[in-house]
């Protein structure tokens, strides 16, 4: 949920800031907030505080508040927001503050009442160019009504969403709930709409594509795969195959993401060699769950099981070869910034104390879904080295925004039974005002660093895979390579 809220705020802020006289300075200020010295940040913070004291424009005040927050002055930013609400009781800041508690309401009756009073005071039709927050609330209500089994209201609210590039974020979760409840009739129109929306943005001329178009297209392979899976379950393999092949033709660079459903349609159509080729693609991505089906198709195509063990041995070699080629792109070599952070028990853990070991740093946050998706694989990798005293995994919790982040982190780790050594990245450097993530140059999470026994960063990678076996194999290659002397 927090990821979606964050994305919503980014788009909403963009719409608001387009009217701000400070907009032209955004890039300059962003660079200072990201990599400026403490002195530069203090000067900028002082300048923005002056803007906040003197400006009579809500856009300028929001702009100043957002950047003051990024500069690490959270209390000042909060004070400015409160002042904005006082000065502009009918403005966008007051509007968003009014609805903020909506997500903590427990009943649909309360949610509906809050929403109706909100749109009465701040009508959607008057928020031209700034309707994303309304869409997020509508999507949340629709999901809640769907979970309660009230399909009529779920559909009514989700169909009120305004932004075409965004509405799949409401349609798909509601459709998924309907499918879980066994109602494909209600689910299919929502999935088809999400697919149509994505295809609309994908088909736009290049010069018309923007961030919204890119965002809308991201989920397209997932939407298509979901609909194809429904068709497959209904025995409509022809429809499923046509749907997937149309999608592959439209986004050929995304073809590997369709393999899990594509092979089923190919097999049903009697195109067994192509079906096996799709499973081989999955296998090389570290998805080994279809091994029995691959063996079956191999046997049919070759007339016997003869040679099947050598066949899989070659595939295993290809997997490792692919991983080794992939990690070459992650090679790095520079001293790792030292740190001393507290773990969940309040004990100090420093990088210096681990010299002589290969250290795996994994920067993550509780709101980061890609981080969380990679954790089962990271757990498997850590367990693989459980008896190796020369390897240490550290999971560095960073960029948390909730004031109760420490409680949230402990609850998350405990609930999922992760045997991780977690450190809190909440100690700001006295000179730069930066946390450790910034010192390591982290721009996005998850971010992983492999540090050798001499304290040098040997590999740096971002992003994640949900494939447990692939992560385990990848981490093994990275760690073993870091054990070897450089050069």
UniProtKB/TrEMBL annotation:
Name this protein carries in UniProt: Redoxin domain-containing protein
Q: Keywords of this protein's UniProt record, alphabetized?
A: Signal, TPR repeat
Q: Which InterPro entries match?
A: AhpC/TSA (IPR000866), Thioredoxin-like_sf (IPR036249), Thioredoxin_domain (IPR013766), Thioredoxin_ResA/DsbE_sf (IPR050553), TPR-like_helical_dom_sf (IPR011990), TPR_rpt (IPR019734)
Does the keyword field hold GTP-binding?
no
Output the SUPFAM superfamilies linked to this UniProt entry. Thioredoxin-like, TPR-like
- What sequence ranges are listed for the domain Thioredoxin? 330-480
Q: Which domain of life is it from?
A: Bacteria
Renumbered to this chain, the signal peptide range is 1-18
Say which species the protein is native to.
Parapedobacter deserti
- TPR repeats at which positions? 221-254
């Amino acid at each position: 949920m927090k990821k979606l809220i964050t994305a919503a705020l980014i788009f909403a802020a963009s719409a608001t800031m387009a009217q701000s006289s400070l907009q032209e300075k955004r890039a300059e200020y962003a660079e200072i907030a990201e990599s400026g010295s403490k002195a530069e940040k203090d000067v900028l913070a002082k300048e923005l505080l002056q803007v906040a004291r003197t400006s009579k424009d809500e856009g300028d005040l929001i702009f100043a508040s957002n950047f003051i927050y990024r500069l690490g002055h959270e209390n000042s930013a909060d004070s400015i927001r409160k002042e904005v609400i006082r000065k502009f009781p009918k403005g966008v800041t007051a509007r968003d503050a009014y609805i903020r508690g909506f997500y903590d309401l427990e009943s649909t009756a309360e949610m509906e009442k809050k929403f109706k009073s909100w749109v009465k005071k701040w009508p959607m039709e008057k928020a031209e160019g700034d309707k994303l927050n309304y869409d997020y609330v509508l999507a949340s209500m629709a999901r809640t009504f769907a979970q309660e089994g009230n399909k009529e209201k779920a559909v009514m609210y989700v169909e009120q969403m305004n932004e075409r590039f965004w509405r799949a974020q409401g349609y798909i979760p509601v459709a998924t709930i309907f499918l879980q409840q066994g109602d494909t009739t209600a689910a299919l129109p929502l999935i088809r709409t999400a697919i149509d929306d994505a295809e609309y943005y994908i088909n736009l001329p290049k010069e018309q594509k923007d961030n919204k178009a890119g965002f809308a297209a991201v989920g397209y392979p997932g939407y298509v795969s979901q609909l194809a899976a429904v068709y497959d379950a209904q025995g409509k393999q022809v429809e499923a195959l046509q749907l997937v092949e149309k999608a592959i033709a439209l986004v050929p660079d995304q073809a590997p993401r369709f393999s899990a459903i594509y092979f089923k349609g190919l097999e049903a159509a009697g195109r067994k060699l192509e079906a096996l080729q799709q499973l081989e693609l999955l296998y090389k991505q570290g998805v080994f769950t279809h091994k029995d089906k691959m063996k079956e198709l191999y046997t049919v195509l070759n007339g016997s099981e003869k040679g099947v063990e050598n066949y899989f041995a070659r595939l295993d070699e290809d997997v490792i070869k692919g991983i080794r080629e992939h990690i070459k792109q992650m090679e790095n070599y520079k001293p790792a910034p030292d740190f001393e952070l507290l773990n969940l028990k309040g004990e100090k853990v420093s990088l210096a104390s681990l010299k002589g070991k290969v250290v795996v740093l994994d920067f993550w946050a509780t709101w980061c879904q890609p981080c969380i998706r990679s954790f089962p694989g990271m757990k498997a990798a850590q367990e693989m080295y459980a008896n190796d005293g020369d390897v240490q995994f550290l999971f560095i919790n960073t960029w948390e925004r909730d004031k109760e982040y420490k409680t949230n982190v402990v609850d998350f780790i405990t609930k999922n039974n992760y045997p991780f050594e977690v450190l809190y990245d909440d100690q700001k450097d006295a000179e730069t005002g930066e946390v450790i993530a910034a010192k390591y140059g982290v721009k996005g999470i998850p971010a992983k660093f492999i540090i050798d026994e001499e304290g040098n960063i040997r590999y740096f990678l971002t992003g994640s895979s949900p494939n447990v076996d692939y992560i385990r194999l990848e981490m093994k290659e990275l760690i073993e390579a870091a054990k070897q002397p450089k050069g």
